[in-house]
Specification:
With 135 residues, the protein is mainly alpha-helical. The protein has 6 helices and 4 strands, in the order E-E-H-H-H-E-E-H-H-H. The protein has a single domain, classed as Winged helix-like DNA-binding domain superfamily/Winged helix DNA-binding domain (Arc Repressor Mutant, subunit A, Orthogonal Bundle). The strands form 2 sheets. A two-stranded antiparallel ribbon has the order 1-2.
Length: 135
């Protein structure tokens, strides 16, 4: 048994979450929105659309763009984007720790038990007794 959840920052719609984080971290590693999008299985045009939407919602640019030329184009994260990535990663770590603590508090005793063990434990006393007699 495990806890599954999603978090994101909302600003008139989804403004930042795990998907955009992965896209920006890919740009940071490759200096290319195109390569980052490709690694995620996302088209370049979809990635550009996402970046433009996020920039509009966040109110600041995420990428510094360099167009073509002899050495080719590329993209780099703006200082605001680097700060956003760092802050979101810190938030994500803290949320993960808090959620794991809460999950353990509320579901720890159930983790690792079989369905039969959980049913037997939660059954009324009369059902438990009947179950034992049948053996």
């Amino acid at each position: 048994m495990k806890l599954v959840y999603k978090i994101w920052i909302d600003q008139s719609g989804k403004a930042f979450g795990d998907g955009p984080l992965a896209l920006l971290k890919g740009v940071e590693q490759t200096d290319s929105l195109n390569r980052s999008a490709a690694k995620m299985g996302m088209s370049y045009s979809k990635a550009w659309g996402l970046i433009r939407t996020l920039e509009g919602r966040l109110g600041f640019p995420l990428l510094e763009r360099k167009v073509g030329g002899p050495s080719g184009g590329g993209s780099k994260l703006t200082s605001e984007a680097r700060e956003l990535v760092a802050r979101y990663e810190g938030l994500r770590r803290d949320v993960d720790q808090a959620m794991e603590t809460l999950f353990e508090k509320h579901f720890g005793p159930l983790k690792g038990r079989s369905r039969k063990e959980r049913e037997d434990r939660d059954a009324p006393d009369s059902r438990r007794r009947r179950g034992r007699r049948r053996k």
